[in-house]
Amino acid sequence: MARNVSTQAKVGFTIGAWAIALLLFSPILWVILTAFKTEAEAIANPPTFLPEHFTLENFGAVQDRSDYIKHVTNSILVSVGSTLLGLIIGIPAAWSMAFAPSKKTKDILMWMLSTKMMPAVGVLIPIYLIFRDLHLLDTVHGLTIIMTLINLPIIIWMLYTYFKEIPVDILEAARMDGAELWNEITHVLVPMAVPGIASTLLLNVILAWNEAFWTITLTSGRAGTLTAFISSFSSPQGLFLAKLSAASLLAIAPILILGWFSQKQLVRGLTFGAVK
Amino acid sequence: MGSIALDHVNKSFGDVQVIPDITLDIKDGEFVVFVGPSGCGKSTLLRLIAGLEDTTSGHILLDGQDMTKAPPARRGLAMVFQSYALYPHMTVRDNIAFPLKMAKMPKEQIDAKVEYAARTLNLASYLDRRPRALSGGQRQRVAIGRAIVREPKAFLFDEPLSNLDAALRVNMRLEITELHQQLKTTMIYVTHDQVEAMTMADRIVVLNAGNVEQFGSPLDLYNKPANRFVAGFIGSPKMNFVDGAEAAKHQAHSIGVRPEHFTLSRTPTPGAWKGTVAVAELLGSDTFLHVNVDSFGLFTVRTGGEDTYKHGDDVYLTPEPTRIYKFGPDGKAL
Question: What pTM, to 2 d.p., does this model score?
Answer without folding.
Answer: 0.82
